[in-house]
Specification:
Length: about 220
């Protein structure tokens, strides 16, 4: 069971790292190379893999003339990638310290450099996915250290964050990205993110009801 959990954590860390990066900032040549030269990673992007423009253009032109233009249209101009816009009745973004997501980050000492990340608020989808990535990393380390009680607690934090935050709005946003995407990469990225957060919630739900959680609680007593 322990080895299975550790293996699962590695996969979760890698996918959360990938989708948070893709949905937070424009693609650069190093990221594009990482995706296109890794067959396992390319399997996540089936439409991008067979996209004719990918072979017809240099990486630099593909990024500047297609991918970054699409990113700007999707995440900066036409769609709003912030939780507060979707969950508040007035559809206003909460950019201040009263944002409940920011309060949660503060509780777990997760720091968001908004200027560096080029986002306006801590509830940007890329930042929320990065938070899940950091939690998955912490859970992995706890499992490696044999700290099952800590790992179980972190799993519970992830379960609640998906339930109370990401799943409340991200599916609708990602469906809109798929509808509006002008490139195969961002269509596939939205599809990957959508399918993964749904399946990861199922995984975390199962984990909440597993003997791993029960045994951790017994250890605590």
């Amino acid at each position: 069971m322990q080895e299975e959990l550790i293996t699962e954590q590695v996969a979760r860390i890698n996918i959360y790292a990938l989708i948070s990066r893709l949905l937070m900032n424009e693609v650069d040549e190093s990221l594009l190379k990482l995706i296109t030269e890794d067959e396992n990673m390319m399997s996540f992007f089936p439409n991008f893999k067979k996209w004719k423009k990918r072979d017809a253009m240099t990486p630099k032109d593909l990024i500047e003339k297609e991918l970054n233009v699409d990113f700007t249209n999707l995440f900066l101009l036409h769609l709003i990638p912030y939780e507060s816009f979707y969950v508040r009745e007035d559809q206003q973004m909460e950019t201040g310290g009263d944002n409940p997501v920011q309060s949660l980050y503060n509780t777990f000492d997760f720091r968001v450099e908004l200027d560096e990340a080029r986002v306006m608020s801590a509830d940007h989808i890329g930042v929320e996915l990065e938070f899940m990535y950091k939690l998955a990393e912490a859970q992995y380390q706890a499992l490696k250290d044999g700290a099952d009680k800590v790992a179980a607690e972190i799993a519970g934090i992830q379960y609640n964050f998906l339930k109370d935050h990401l799943l409340e709005w991200a599916p609708m946003f990602l469906l809109n990205v798929k509808l509006e995407a002008g490139t195969a990469l961002y269509f596939d990225a939205a599809e990957l993110a959508l399918e993964f957060i749904m399946s990861d919630f199922e995984y975390l739900t199962e984990l909440q009801n597993s003997t791993f959680i029960d045994n951790s609680l017994v250890e605590e007593k």
